[in-house]
Specification:
There is one protein chain. This protein has 8 helices and 8 strands; from the N terminus they run βαβαβαβαβααββαβα. The protein has a single domain, classed as NAD(P)-binding Rossmann-like Domain (Rossmann fold), CATH 3.40.50. The protein has 211 residues and is α/β, with parallel strands linked by helices. β2, α2 and β3 form a beta-alpha-beta unit. The structure holds NADP nicotinamide-adenine-dinucleotide phosphate. The site of NADP nicotinamide-adenine-dinucleotide phosphate has 25 residues, from α1. NADP nicotinamide-adenine-dinucleotide phosphate binds next to α1.
């Protein structure tokens, strides 16, 4: 993978972009207000990064990471995301970003909901269960003792393998939680969400999840 596109350039998107540039990737990053509004961030990221609008970013990326509020889904560039692997780093925070009445969070994971709304894309859930700040402080080379582990869920094995390789390149071990329907195991309020765990601890936390 050479080019990582990041849609959403706030706390999480900017941090993923920083970690990706540090890992040697080219980054295309987009927000809702247009590339001009990202001049300062792109200047900080350096020549490996450029700003784009969401449609351009969706087209450019070998992988595309979604770092927007989940309720932005109707505005995403579905045509340009057709056939793309979309890494869903979103979480459902109705109290912060507003409720999504059509999403029943008790019957499906938020990534299954996103997949249902973007049927032409291959949604893989990852990079949602750590705080944004940790991306640039907790990453370590593969094989480091006690390396922090994150989780991944998805239905397409090849797409999932590509996302595992991305998360590894960003500095984290990756534990496979299973299909997208198991993604709830590392959503908010679960033991695998938001705290530093190594690979064994992440496996145990995923197993301890309760609905
Ligand atoms: N912050 C964390 O620690 C963290 C950790 C894990 C997961 N997450 C998840 O990541 C997502 C973003 O969180 P955040 O804290 O980074 O929020 P944030 O700082 O408010 O950033 C949201 C970003 O999404 C962009 N955006 C909104 N609608 C868009 C659209 N239709 N097209 C393109 N870009 C759009 C915004 O662009 P404008 O500013 O131009 O509107 C902004 O750049 C949420 O789903 C959150 O649950 C966050």
């Amino acid at each position: 993978m050479k080019t990582l596109s990041v849609i959403g350039a706030g706390n999480l998107g900017a941090q993923i972009a920083r970690a990706a540039v540090a890992a040697g990737l080219s980054v295309v990053i987009a927000n809702s207000r247009g590339p001009e509004s990202l001049a300062e961030l792109v200047s900080e990221l350096g020549p490996a990064a450029r700003a784009a609008d969401p449609a351009d970013a969706a087209t450019a990326g070998d992988l595309v990471v979604l770092c927007t509020p989940l309720n932005s889904y109707p505005d995403l560039p579905a045509a340009q995301l057709e056939g793309k692997v979309l890494v869903d780093a979103t979480n459902y925070y109705p109290e912060l970003f507003g409720p999504i009445p059509e999403f029943d969070s008790r019957s499906m994971s938020s990534s299954e909901f996103l997949q249902s709304r973007l049927p032409g894309s291959v949604v893989i859930k990852a990079l949602n269960n750590l705080g944004a700040a940790d991306l640039t402080t907790d990453g370590q080379p593969a094989g480091s003792p006690g390396r922090r582990a994150l989780a991944v869920a998805g239905d397409d094995p090849d797409a999932k393998a590509r996302v595992v390789a991305l998360v590894d390149a960003l500095g984290f071990d990756v534990i496979d939680a299973g299909p997208l329907s198991e993604g709830w195991r590392f959503q908010r309020d679960q033991p695998a969400y938001g705290i530093r765990l190594d690979a064994d601890q992440m496996r145990a936390a995923l197993s301890d999840a309760k609905r």
